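Standup notes
- DV: blocked on the single-chain target, sequence here:
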Amino acid sequence: MPAETTGAPNTGAPVNTAAPAQDGSKTAPPPANSTAPKAEGEKLTPAQLKAKAKAEKAARRAQVKEARAAAPVPSPVQEKGAVTDGKGGKGKGKPDGQQTQGKGGHSQGRRPSFSGRRPSGAPIEKDVRSTIPDAFSHIPMAKRIPTSQAHKDVHPAVLAVGQQMATFALSDSISRLQATLLAFRKVIESYETPKGNSLSRHFVPHVLNPQIEYLTECRPMCFAMGNAIRLLKGKINKFDINTGDEEAKEGLLEWIDFLINERINLAEYAIARNAALLINEGDTLLTYGRHRLVEKTFLEAKKDGKSFEVTVIDDPFERSGQDLAKVLRQAGIPVLYSPNLGGLRPKVAAATNVFLGGEAIFANGSLHAPSGTADVAMSAANAGVKVIVLCETINFDRDRVSVDSLTYNEIDPERNSAESFRLLFDNTHDKYITGVVTEFESGGGNSPAQAILALLRKQEDPLID
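- DV (later): unblocked, structure below
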């Protein structure tokens, strides 16, 4: 009979094909009345086939044991192709060119580690969070999730949005919110309620939640997205169980269009108009980085015929202020550009007003904004300069408060190394903020940061009626 391959390393050691007995000793040739194979051409009984397979298996085990005893410990290069069964138990024979796994989960031919360290072997992908100290391990970080690992129910439109968020092609809260709502719109359009279910009971747990989980895995959800999703779920839950699919879907699509139009497009226009009223002829204005509301406010004031100057303090990492300076100069506005926070105090002291954009505002009036915003706001407050924050109410958080930058934040995945890492946002206390401009006119659209909860009670809930 031809010799069978066992998957053991070819070490040149002699191989004994005699099957060992249960006590480990070599066995004699089987007796004549055994179930060994008969002459070629004779058909074997099931019992004989079973005994034959058992004997061959015992022979293979003997070969592996002898090969292990005679073979040297393989190098990491030899171990690169090692295969384990993933169960931590005794491995079975594999085809030629592969290792077998022994007891305890260690590959046969590989020296087990008693020091607690992983044995050398195939290169392992580095965990980007492995260098973050334990004190900051609670802070999330955006990561790119391969589409092949996404839940099978995630819609292609949501897959695309998740990839754009993970790579920061969609970075600010409003652009992420708008892209998410448009993707959810396509999810609703393609949805069909299974037989025996209703949209109000089936859609959220089985369709919407997988989309949300995928987006959250790609990048932590911003406050605007969280508010919009809460409102969307409230709208869905208000549907009667007997509401028809087409009627419910049409209602949801209209509601999404209304939310985008009212809370994003019209809100941007209203905030820019309200904030432009705070700019006077000959003012020297200062801002940090580039925020869409601040940019639109300056352009709106210029359109009104006002003459003023703008100082742009740029984020030294993002460099978004360069683009803002170019846009303002093209509009005929004199601009002083500073590439970093150096010399911040005299620049702030020379300003009339400081305009800042926010990612979110907490219930205690604290501002959640790109890193560096707090430095500008504190310098302005110390110099007696007004600090005006522009923010849509969809970014307000009515339930949570924040007093530091470590409770709600993100780690910059592009600037994370063994030596240091960078936080994307910081927290500005309400005492450094003169007023908040929103799309709802309250005192000319300029409300104190501490009045955020009162402002929220006047609106928002009608969206889910």
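- Follow-up: Confidence is low (pLDDT under 50) at residues 1-40, 73-125, 461-465.
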